[in-house]
Amino acid sequence: MSIVKSALTVGGLTGISRILGFIRDLMIAAILGAGAAADAFFVSFKLANLLRRLFAEGAFNAAFVPLFARTHEGEGDEAARRFAEEALAVMTTVLLVVVLLAQLAMPWLVRALAPGFEADGDRYGLAVELSRITFPYLMFISLAALFSGVLNSIGRFAAAAFAPIILNLVLITALLLASLHPATPAHALAWGVFAAGILQLGWVAVAAKRNGMGLRLRWPRVTPRLKRLFKLMVPGAIGSGVYQINLVIDTLFASMLPVGAVSYLFYADRLNQLPLGIIGIAIGTVILPMLARQLRAGQDGAASHTQNRAIEMGLLLTLPAAAALVVLAEPIIRVLFERGAFGPEDTAATAAALMAFSLGLPAYVLIKVLVPAFFAREDTATPVKVAAVCLLANVGLILLLIGPLAHVGIALATALANALNVTFLALILHRRGFLRMDTKLRRTLPRIVLATVVMAITLFVADRLLADLPPAINLGLTIGLGGFVYAVSALLTGAADAADLKRQLSRRSRPAEPSA
Prior knowledge:
Elements: H1 3-32, H2 36-75, H3 77-113, H4 122-134, H5 137-153, H6 157-176, H7 185-210, H8 224-239, H9 242-254, H10 261-296, H11 300-327, H12 329-337, H13 344-359, H14 361-375, H15 381-405, H16 407-431, H17 439-465, H18 471-493, H19 498-505
Helix pairs in contact: 1-6, 1-10, 2-3, 2-4, 2-5, 2-7, 2-8, 2-9, 2-10, 3-4, 3-5, 4-7, 5-6, 5-7, 6-7, 8-15, 9-15, 9-16, 10-11, 10-13, 10-14, 11-13, 11-14, 11-17, 12-13, 13-16, 14-16, 15-16, 17-18
């Protein structure tokens, strides 16, 4: 299985989802702007999404995929299916209880997430109401994550990667019909989140059945294998979700700033999430089951080769993306968001946050590449220890930077915490002998940096030379020119090998032999 081909499959579908997500966010910005209703909806959406990313896509995938992949590799289809069914039964029961308790405790949950919302203010009451509508999404999408983990473990990445597209299509539809809702457009969005969760679960469940992994609901019981699963999940909830926890801390502090700070950070992070989803999440999704299978088969050399190629691919795509977001932050925000209720001041504030977030983009993508090296070895404890240190560092950096830089200080603190995180992970893997840069990676890295610098200079100059053109045309031509210059520079410097990429994309391709 080619890591490049598989990652491009996931990344391509994720890219479509992110584009639809931008359309959704453009519509939200035009309809809700950056006011009280927008702040309330983003808090409600973040509450369900936080738990989804920590426990469903984070901790659960980190623990379930290696166990399922190893069971499937060593014991066959039936044993793997039985394990998945046992997990499905227990998860369904636990999630039902969690959702019911959360409905009762929602005022306190919103207060914990956004303590700056005044108890008698519009934002707090609306956030509680919307959160009660969106929270069941956690149950639907968590169960969908189980089916997605099954599909990814057997090498069927496309169906699971398509599921987020459903969410964005449903929310776009909800926005188009928002005027029909008797309350507010924010209520229409909240109900869209609820409906999307049901549809996403149905989609991946049907896909699993079509691929020979249909699951039936058993009576819940805790087996030894499930005990192992949940033991791995507990530290994995923090170890794989440090970025999401940092965003919650960001929201907590931003809620104490003037109205609009929460929204500025949300819109900036949405743009930052585009390369994260296409590159980081795609590579992380693909590399985890691959490493688990290779280690289960005793192929340590192949696992090391997979890790090196993932790092190389991640940086080849991430460094230019980060540079482009820093250089072109303000024109990007202006073209995408500045209309309707979103004005020039909102553009400047959001662009500043985007620049700060983007500085941490390469680090976060490398976290997605390195953390699976621990999870594939069923070690979820080490990442959580690293995460704990980085969480404390993030809080300290926010306290240091929020005074002089306001919401931009929050974004910059998150970027610096990510850099600290990936540094610790790399050092630990290296000391354990699990991370060794091969000849190809050592040769390629400085050439990627050089090609990125050439591209960044091109973007800076082109944006100013084309300043008299309409903003959208200027941005499109500048990005197109920058992309072309980067591609040519990467090929000329040897940062990218056209022949090697062609082999990786071939259906019959196999990973090259590890180099020294």
